[in-house]
Amino acid sequence: MNYALNERWGILYCPRKGIRSKRKRWERLQKELEKHGVKFDMVQSENTDSVERLVTMLIRNGYKIIVIVGGDSALNDAVNCLMREERSVREQVMLGVIPNGSMNDFARFWEFSDDNDAQTVEWLTKQRVRKVDLGRIHYTDKHEEQHHRYFLNCINIGTTADIMNLRQQTRRILWSRTLSFVVSVILKIFHRKDYKMRIRVNSEIVDRRVMTVCVGNAHGYGQTPSAVPYNGMLDLTVVYDPQLMQLFSGLWLLISGRFLNHRSVHPYRTRELVVEEARHALVGIDGRLIKQPVGSYTITVEQEVINFLIPD
């Protein structure tokens, strides 16, 4: 695949919620882009609902390099827009990221940092491309309508999705991302909940009460640390039977990157899993909740479908 070095970039800037200096953040980034000789057109999202509309606009206007200045959720919207296009269109587009979201786990997987724009822009200008996998969930909602959604990082089912939901609510009050996350985790530890689940993975059936499930195409916020988005496989962790003190040790192992060493964590690797039952369990995709599935749903992987700009 040959791309001209002077190809004009389409940049979607997604400001962080609650950050007052949104313009200053963009001005710093703009200086770095101009310093590296990047030609670009920028559009700014007003809210989460506008991201897909703006990405679609960039695709339809013929931009071959589309860079998302945002987090996991904005990237998720972008890949879902791309997957709605014909393969011939998708093959001509390179997707890049400059981390600027509440959660930047997929960017961190590639070692892009939200506090080093100079390094990120330099890497992106090298236009090194890798085809990456996408996970895919297929489910039915309460109106009996069928949906599918792609993900780059992970799907969370159960307690972790609860924490994400609670974190969004507490952040409206606390404003701090870190503080809202810590408060949400503590609240969930002391009000933890198990869910009746039945999961079919490979030749095994997990049929029991489960605390949380993570299906990772990448690191899954530390819950699937061995997952990589280019081997055609999904990593799965199922957590059940943790005692209160084990939860605190589990948090430490999560932070230190040794989550799989916890006795309550049960890992798998698969191309497909079927969630036959997960009563009342919320589902989060790349950090954002979706409509709660009704009945069984399937999670699979599609190999090498997105052209992603990676570090040099």
Number of helices: 9
Please state the overall shape, judged from the principal axes of the Cα atoms: elongated
Alpha carbon gap, first and last residue: 17 Å
Range of strand content: 25-35%
Major sheet attributes: 10 strands, mixed
Rounded to the nearest angstrom, the radius of gyration is 19 Å
Number of strands: 16
User: What is the averaged pLDDT score?
Assistant: 85
Which residue ranges are poorly predicted, with pLDDT under 50 across at least 5 consecutive positions? Answer: 1-5, 170-187, 244-250
SSE blueprint and pairings:
Elements: E1 9-13, H1 22-35, E2 40-44, H2 48-60, E3 65-70, H3 72-83, H4 87-90, E4 94-99, H5 105-109, H6 117-125, E5 129-140, E6 146-151, E7 154-158, H7 159-174, H8 177-190, E8 195-201, E9 204-210, E10 212-216, E11 234-239, H9 244-255, E12 265-270, E13 272-278, E14 283-285, E15 288-289, E16 297-309
Parallel strand pairs: 1-2, 1-3, 3-4, 4-16
Antiparallel strand pairs: 5-6, 5-16, 7-10, 7-14, 8-9, 8-13, 10-11, 11-12, 13-16, 14-15
Helix pairs in contact: 2-3, 7-8
Task: Give a description of the structure.
The chain is of the alpha+beta class and 312 residues long. It is 32% helix and 32% strand. The strands form 2 sheets. Strands 1, 2, 3, 4, 5, 6, 8, 9, 13 and 16 form a 10-stranded mixed β-sheet that branches. Helix 7 crosses helix 8 (177-190). The chain is elongated, with a radius of gyration of 19 Å. Residues 1-5, 170-187 and 244-250 have low confidence and may be disordered.
